[in-house]
Task: structure prediction
Amino acid sequence: MASTSDIRNGLCIRYNNDIYKIIEFLHVKPGKGPAFVRTKMKSVTNGKVLDNTFSAGHKIEDVRVETHKFQYLYNDGEFYHFMNEADYTQIRLLESAIDRTDLMKEGEVVTIQINTEDNMPLSVDLPASVILEVTATEPGIKGNTATNATKPATVESGAEVNVPLFINEGDKIKVETEKGTYKERIKE
Result:
């Protein structure tokens, strides 16, 4: 058993007969009244996001998890297939268990959290940023740079990302996976 002081991003807890992963949390200590912890939790079984407030000192049941590095192999339409880098075993997951499938390319190494009680995968965490090649974008219009202008670009994984006007087809860009936003152009 853990308490609200143990809450952190990525912690998996058992709540309402389901397992949730803490996405965001905020310890609040108002001037009047008791302290509390405001959380945003995502169900690892169905992907629903739930806002919840725990009073300070509230006991929560944490779930023991192990993290393993897996390589993304392919998507067969229904399942996403991954291979454990340590022992080469393969697992397959539904799309609802993965946050940003549109930013995964084949061969990408991800971190998968596995419940130690039943060896079931709980969630897939992409790296903080991924490098993807731009496959389609309109050419930038000269002189349209008075403001921080962007244009849509499709990357090799199929995602659409807003990029600056100087990005062209074939350029490699770094994309922040949490928000799906352009970070920088990669020079080769």
In short: The first strand starts at residue 2 and ends at 3. The two ends are 50 Å apart (CA to CA).
